[in-house]
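Q: I'm writing up a methods section and want to include an example of the input and output format. Could you take the sequence below and give the corresponding predicted structure tokens, formatted cleanly so I can copy it straight into the document?
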Amino acid sequence: MALTKVYDAATVFRNLNGIINVYKPAGMKVKHVRNAILSNICKGLNDLEQRKPRKLPNDMRLLGTGAATDTVLHKIAANTDLSDHILASGPRYLPGDIRCAAVSTLGYHTSGVLLFGLNKGLQQSSLIQRNRPVRVYHVTARMGTATENHLPDSRVTVRANHRHLTPERISGLAASMQASHQRKMFELCGVDLQTQAAYELACKGLLRPADNSQPVVYGIKLIHFERPHFTLELHTINESEQYMAALIHDMAIELRTVAHCSQIRCIRHAHFDVSESLLRHGWHLPGIMKNLRLQQSVLEAHPQLLDQQRVDLHAAQ
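A: Here is the clean output for your methods example:
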């Protein structure tokens, strides 16, 4: 279908519905990202062609008393409600006119994929959130130093030697932790991992938590090692920035050293990839409208994002 340029603000506003995928920078709160996007949308809408002021009924025309005044007002405001003029009422579109909500939040130090629902897209965002899709992170850790909150902006509390660590030891621990988390999922469902019931439960699909309070890790893999840093790829649900930072700290303790998170980056949320995220210089009305169409195609290609049969971890208890 061929696309046409639209210069009417009301037409653009009526089509401002759906899911957008933006790239959240590290060191920026989600609410500040939301406010910046809404402000840029309103600025773009107010720069387009606006509707004309309302017309007054015939018995409410504004007429002057003098000859000169009567001529000017009759030409400008005889049938126009001046209180509805843009110079009197202010901008037509304000951030409060647009409904916007994040599908799931990211921490202050976390960057990467952040999904928002706009206007009628709020229903889609709530469905995605209720289905709890897996998110993929690249978490970079710095070995040798530990901080108070396991994040880079905190005070260093411990220093330790890390020369004995190798990629093989980190990969082995990551595989062991992944197996432990997978075993815990079936235990929460009340079945033994070596039984037929566990096999049938696994055939139904991915085991998901029944609420938002329980973090679940589905995969941990070492993807990069360059002393003193290493990067893990995490596949998780219901995670938080502090949970992943504590996970890095616990792994370092098991490896007889210390470490803290130096970078956390979300590269995928379900089928929404970081390669399609809208960078900060693209947070304007044309970029947002283009991103809305792009994410709509993702939802059409993967309808299970909005209607998914889940296997809850507490379903069999």
